Amino acid sequence: MKIGILALQGAFLEHKNILDFLKIESCLIKTKEQLEDVDGIILPGGESTAMGKLLRDFNILEPLREKIKNGFPVFGTCSGMILLAEKLSNSEVVHLGVMGIEVKRNAYGRQLGSFETEENFKGIDKKVKMVFIRAPYVEKTKESVEILSTVNGNITAVREKNMLAVSFHPELTNDASVHKYFLDIVKKNKK
Ligand code: GLN
Predict the structure, then answer these.
(1) Active site residue 169
(2) Closest ligand 1 atom, CA of 10?
């Protein structure tokens, strides 16, 4: 199993560190050709407008969208969740638009944008550490979307088939449980 990490912008190295710790082979994705070489991809946190622009400029957006629609496992964290969303409630822009969620960017406002907590996560049998940085949350979900975690009533983790999205940064903690959850999706898809 080999995992790609989109490395155009943002916190991609932190994801690589977690995969290294888990002894999972990974590579940094900067071209569309590299997508063919991996079993799943992580879309890191950063700045979704910049990342969306780079995905378009490097011609990765369309091939990645097609692959995801065909079942390629994807894990979006923070900005990555924004890239996956079918709709943004406070912006006209849609990037990959593959996941049946409506997401609010910078949903906690600028002042309260960054905080840390521990919450339940469906499918993980302990509380998960969650770091939020100018984070989005999910405002609406389609029926096909499973809600995995909420923080103060706001949806912060969702799963739809081959797609996993969280509004926090699991890569900025020493807690690898959400990455393991994603790796299970990749393993099952490979079988
Ligand atoms: N606010 C950023 C955005 O809109 C997301 C922040 C993050 O990824 N930490 O893309």
Answers:
(1) yes
(2) 8
Farthest-apart Cα atoms in the chain, separation:
45
What is the rounded distance in angstroms from the CA atom of residue 55 to the CA atom of residue 95?
Answer: 9
- Structural tokens at position 72: 């390629």
Q: How far is the CA of 191 from the centre of ligand 1 (A)?
A: 34
- Selecting among 15, 78, 95, 160, the annotated active-site residue is 78
Residue ID of nearest Cα to ligand 1 atom 8 = 45
Ligand 1 atom nearest residue 11's Cα: 8
pTM: 0.96
**By C-alpha distance, which of 102, 107, 156, 165 is closest to 127?**
156
- Of all residues in the chain, the percent with pLDDT exceeding 90 is 94
Domain of residue 160, CATH code: 3.40.50.880
Amino acid at 58: F
- Say how many domains are in the chain: 1
- Enclosing domain of residue 29: 2-61+72-190
